[in-house]
Amino acid sequence: MHPEDKISPAFEPYLADSRRRDKHEAVVIYQAPETKPAGPDRLRDVSGRLRQAEAQATRHREIESRIFDDYRESSDEALRISPIGHSALPVITVEVTPRTLLSLARQPDVIAIMPNQKIHLIKPQAVSFDELARSEARQGYTWGLEQLGVAPVWDKTQGAGVKVGVLDTGVFGDHPALDKRVSDFVIIDPLGRRIAAKPTFDAGAHGTHVCGTIAGGQTPEGVHIGVAPEANLLVAAVLVGDATLRTLLEGLDWAIEKGADIVNMSLGFNYYEPMFTEVFDVLINQYGVLPVVAVGNENQGNSSSPGNAYNALAVGALERHSRARVDVAFFSSGASLVFPGQEPNALVTKPDVAAPGVQVYSTIPPTLRVDGAYYYSYMDGTSMAAPHVAGVAALLMAAQPKAPVAEIVRVLKETAAHPGGANRRPDNRWGHGMVRPEEALAALTS
Q1: Domain ranges of the chain
Q2: Are strands 262-265 and 163-168 parallel, antiparallel or unpaired?
């Protein structure tokens, strides 16, 4: 690979007005040593995953030392270099200048260099504190769970033993509908430091809402809100303060160590970042972790990184028009991206699948209003659709713990329902279609 090809195009706005010695923090992905991929048995204990991560970290540190030494020798400036997390991921942060960026890219161990850009929440389009809809109270399920048809699947699997990492604003773990579901929690501050906190907390309400859709129990009215109510939640509050790419990577590193099988990310970057695919490759191929990402709320013709990475399972949002009809929400992003010469991923169409994302009822931290305290609310957004898919994936993984991530993704796509039929799949509104848990489980077990 030519050195210039290792430098992310997202650097352009950072370097446009930079002088030769202006410093910028960069994230470097390096070539990890080849290892045997993680076994597909997702019900292995956490200590086994931790041993695997520690062994890989030992190999990574040798490469990091080589990169550090070579970089210092090639530069006459005092530039800060530091690892990310405990080195489960082959990633480091490095200060660069326009003058030293190319010398760093020339190192043979280096695969990609990205600016440590800011990350942001894919904010809900609307939030409502209305009382529970009568139809949902009558059915005993949110419309999303009813639309996906999760009830028959619960006779076979409810996600027990599967660990879902939620990288978001945090979680109000004391919520009654999340009782005993949050098995681990950490705050990642803007400097990338891991901070243990008890009790758990949510810097907003978004993370708690996402957690409820993945694994929540029942409301006081008896309405089921979570797709996989027996799954375990590993929550990293990465969207606290001035969050950056480094903050996210620290959260991913933590989730790997804690044994996450799935990571849900309802967040995005300010600039398109094609090189994040390298991070997802490590998650999927080395650790057997499925990245589920909201595609964005910027309407058709747009997509949000990292949801537009070819190897992310990107999710678009559906809304219900009647009991018999659903359609893609107007705000739900989607795009067809063309990368000439980059086979086999020259054409990438996003989202991959769709799920309910409008008027989704779920948990929030207690919110005081003039008419009392609210513990639940409706929210709209692809951020609400992604946890539906993360929950469905948890159901499948619990039912078939030896199925690799690629097989989980395949059955989710192949059994999805597209209104135009199989010949229209994928498109940049529906992707492959609305996920169907019962059909996906049948395909996985056949």
Answers
A1: 3-116, 120-445
A2: parallel
Which CATH code fits 120-445? 3.40.50.200
| Catalytic residue selected from 206, 209, 224, 432 | 206
- pLDDT tens for each residue of 82-120: 888 888 999 999 999 988 899 999 999 999 999 999 999
The catalytic position among 86, 168, 266, 432 is 168
What distances in angstroms separate CA 148 from CA 376, 408, 435, one per listed residue? 21, 17, 7
Structural contact between residues 88 and 53, judged by C-beta atoms closer than 8 angstroms: yes
Q: Is the peptide bond before 199 cis (omega within 30 degrees of 0)?
A: yes
Is the Cβ–Cβ distance between 103 and 4 less than 8 Å?
Answer: no
Which of 383, 388, 418, 432 is labelled catalytic? 383
75 counts as catalytic: no
Residues 38/287, Cβ–Cβ less than 8 Å:
yes
**Amino acid, res. 372:** G
Residue 206 falls in the annotated catalytic set: yes
pLDDT in tens, 335-370: 888 766 666 667 889 999 999 999 999 999 998 877
- Say how many C-beta atoms besides its own lie within 10 A of residue 134's C-beta: 8
What is the predicted pLDDT for the residue at 132?
Answer: 67
Cβ neighbourhood burial of 98 (10 Å; 0-12, 13-18, 19+): middle
**Residue 166: phi, psi to the nearest 5?**
-115, 110
pTM for this predicted structure:
0.93
Sheet holding 360-369, edge to edge: 126-128, 372-380, 360-369
Q: Give 10-23 as a DSSP string.
A: GGHHHHTT--TT--
> Per the omega criterion (within 30 degrees of 0), is the bond before 37 cis?
no
Q: 104 in helix, strand or coil?
A: helix
Q: Which of 14, 363, 433 is nearest to 174 (CA)?
A: 363
R_g of the chain computed on alpha carbons: 21
Please determine, for residue 436, whether its predicted confidence score (pLDDT) is greater than 60.
Answer: yes
Mean pLDDT of 158-183: 97
Do 256 and 204 form a contact (C-beta atoms < 8 A)?
no
Catalytic residue flag (residue 332): no
* Per-residue pLDDT tens over the stretch 230-287: 999 999 999 998 999 999 999 999 999 999 999 999 999 878 888 899 999 999 999 9
